Amino acid sequence: MEKLRRRLPPLTALVIFEAAARLLSFTSAAREMCVTQAAVSRQIRVLEESLGQPLFVRGHRNISLTSAGRRLYATVDQSLERIADTVHDLRNGVSGVITFAATIGFSTYWLRPRLQAFQRAHPDIGVRLLALDRDFDLVGENIDIGFTTGSEGQGPGVRLDRLFDETILAVCSPSYLGDRQLHEPRQLLEERLLHLDREHWRWIRWPVVDWPVWLQQMGVTYAPPTPALSFNNSALLFQATLEGEGIALGWGAMIDDLLESGALVRVLPHEYRTSRGYYLALNPTSIGVSAAEVFREWLLADLARR
User: Fold this and answer.
1) Which of 91-95, 135-139, 176-180, 241-245 has the lowest mean pLDDT?
2) Over the stretch 19-46, which tens digit does the pLDDT of each residue have?
3) For residues 150 and 109, what is the distance between their CA atoms, to the nearest angstrom?
4) Quick one: which of 37, 113, 192, 278 could link to 30 by a disulfide (CB 3.0–4.6 Å)?
5) What is the C-alpha to C-alpha distance for residues 265 and 213, in angstroms, rounded to an integer?
6) Topology (CATH level 3) of domain 165-278
7) pLDDT tens-digit profile of 161-178?
8) Looking at the domain that runs over 2-91, which CATH code has it been given?
9) What are the extents of the domains in the chain?
């Protein structure tokens, strides 16, 4: 602790800096902290002297953050927020809070029901779910567990557990299928095919898999019509599919529950099995790693029973 104390500036100055940087006002920060404006100015000066560079640009009527100020604020804000969350959990008897990240579709149709089951088994552990259709950095964003198809965006030391293979199949609602007799992929060219828009893949480094790619795997050449009905995330795509709008590509594990319940049905027996898999990625540096380990063990045991 002695070494840490020497490396850190005064903690009071950091707390006051967070308020001043967030509010961009020494006066408002003083009001929030129940101190005088002079006390805020003095603590900010102490902090700037400790760092050897200015944190604010002081105008006649306003202030703004310097580049160093913005950098420090990002770290201080995040760190104090995590401390406040932990204190809240300890006061309320919560063993920990796990922050999860996954794509919107995976979060909606696969992960969320399992998080509900996990909390029934472990009511003392809180859950925070980030649905992100983009690459994410577990360590940099303080995410405890992420679900991904590979190690994209993850740093060294992140533990990966392969959960299942990636299998892509054509699905629709029972109402859309009706009495249609579909046996071959080529027949799909006469049907209304629902698409994931290119916008969905822009911030994800996974290879694009849409109808042209899937049908090519089946030996069928396909160019999407213009206009086509497309969506920028898979949750919207599956909702349209559930409502009978057309046929979509479904990722097997993601929509298993919908298939088991009969809400969606397979259109053809054909499927595209990629070389990729779905992974649980665990951040070993997070403060919630013990609770995250509890979830990991619970999930692996749950999957083994299925």
Assistant:
1) 91-95
2) 999 999 999 999 999 999 999 999 999 9
3) 20
4) 37
5) 21
6) D-Maltodextrin-Binding Protein; domain 2 (3.40.190)
7) 999 888 999 999 999 999
8) 1.10.10.10
9) 2-91, 96-129+137-154+282-305, 165-278
List Cα–Cα distances, 62 to 21, 56, 59, in angstroms: 12, 10, 5
Question: Measuring CA to CA, which residue among 80, 82, 63, 68 is closest to residue 20?
Answer: 63
Task: Tell me the H-state helices in 149-288.
Answer: 174-177, 198-201, 211-217, 234-242, 256-261
- Across the strands, what pairs with 284? none
Joined together, the tokens standing for residue 267 give 């259109």
Residues 6+ apart with CB under 8 A from 185: 170, 215, 218, 219, 220, 268, 270
d(CA 197, CA 165): 23
pTM, whole model, 2 decimals? 0.68
Give yes or no for a contact between 241 and 172, defined as CB atoms under 8 angstroms apart: yes
* Topology match between the domains 96-129+137-154+282-305 and 165-278: yes
Whether domain 96-129+137-154+282-305 has CATH 3.40.430.10: the reply is no
For residues 47 and 12, give the distance between their C-alpha atoms in angstroms, rounded to a whole number.
10
Top-confidence residue, 62 or 200: 62
Give the pLDDT score at 60.
84
